[in-house]
Amino acid sequence: MKAAYTFEAAFRVPSDGAALDPNRFETTLRLFAPVPGVEPGPERIDWLFFRDRLWHGDIGDEAPLREAASDWLGVEVVSLSFSELRADDEYLEALRTEIGTDLSRFNAASVDEVVHQYLGSSVHVVETEAV
To answer: Which InterPro entries does this one have (predicted)?
Structure first.
């Protein structure tokens, strides 16, 4: 069971006393998703990341997430955009099951509504090895 939140990120590398050209780099950032329903541990994100950070397949508030990504990566992240949740079938089934245990925490009437509200159409089902 695997999943990752995938973002397009641009960052700057500190260049104290040196010049870089270009001074901005673009990359794909993958945040591996924790098991649905498991209380947060030492991971960087918890299983409710999608609820707390995304809305209709976009980042709800980019600045705080960009700051967190800067801390995680040790570079200045200057832009960040959500691409997709890449997940295998097993992860999506577990996520949908856990969402369904308490729809009130999502202010929604169905699991499908929750998935659409937060992830939009940005869910990509892949083989486990492709996450």
So the answer is: LWR_salt
Closest by Cα among 85, 95, 49 to 68:
49
pLDDT (tens digit per residue) in 10-38: 999 888 888 888 889 999 999 999 999 98
Whole-number Å distance between alpha carbons of 115 and 113: 6
The low-confidence residues of the chain, meaning pLDDT below 50, are none
The C-alpha atoms of residue 92 and residue 90 are separated, in whole angstroms, by 6
What six digits make up the tokens of 21?
């050209």
Q: Can you give the pLDDT at residue 20?
A: 84
The model's pTM: 0.90
Comparing C-alpha atoms, which of 71, 58, 56 is closest to residue 7? 58
CB 7 within 8 A of CB 80: yes
DSSP string across 66-101: HHHHHHHHTSEEEEEEEEEEEE-HHHHHHHHHHHHT
